[in-house]
Amino acid sequence: SNTKYVAFWLQWNNNQGAYAQVGSVSGTTITFGSVTQVAVDSTTWSWISCDYDKVNEVVMYMLGQSSGSVYGATISGTTINESTTRGQYGENLGSGQIVSDQKGGFMSCYIRSDGADQYVRAGTYNSSGDITLGSATGGDNGYATQVYRNMSSLAYSPDDDKWVAVFSKASGTYQTHFSIATRSGTTATQPASPSGYNSGAGVNTIFYDTKNKYFVQLNRRNGSGAQTLRTLQINAAGNGVTVGQTVDAFD
Prior knowledge:
single chain, five-stranded antiparallel sheet
């Protein structure tokens, strides 16, 4: 909210597992609540992604491991109340991200480490944070298991009511691939095959600019160690991405 946030992190040492903590902000002072272990059914998480639905006041977090999961929670003061009804992916998630549409639903994108394909899955949650996860759709392959499976990002446009997922493709020429995703209940749809352009091998990230109504995406530039920052828009047909101008390229 305007005065409160939740931080998530992973620990691999003595207290292995996923943890969270509420921070309350007053002026320039942050007061923290108690550290809470979340997702206690496993301690072998390799990454974590989270988002917050400020309309329905539900926190959601997606964790990757040999069998990835997504959890929901509510916050009372500085207390984190994790729901016991979670969504299980049932497969190894090499990377991923979860983003809410602020309407009681979310989209998740991920790259499997076994098979290294890209998928999206939608889900819903109630006011208690109980998660219902839908089936996977996608399957575009060509993501090298050992390296490029760690490159995926997701952003939501409330103006289009669509998500854009970004993946780094490793087979043949390195490419940044985009996929449109829509949600109806727990059903996710990708209206067209992912498309893309040549880029360097490296991390992608994307966000939506609500003021100017376009996506902004950052990736490694093809053939060098420099980065490219560019704008993107969903096309008129709503089934693909139009790559706009390069805002900047820098070392």
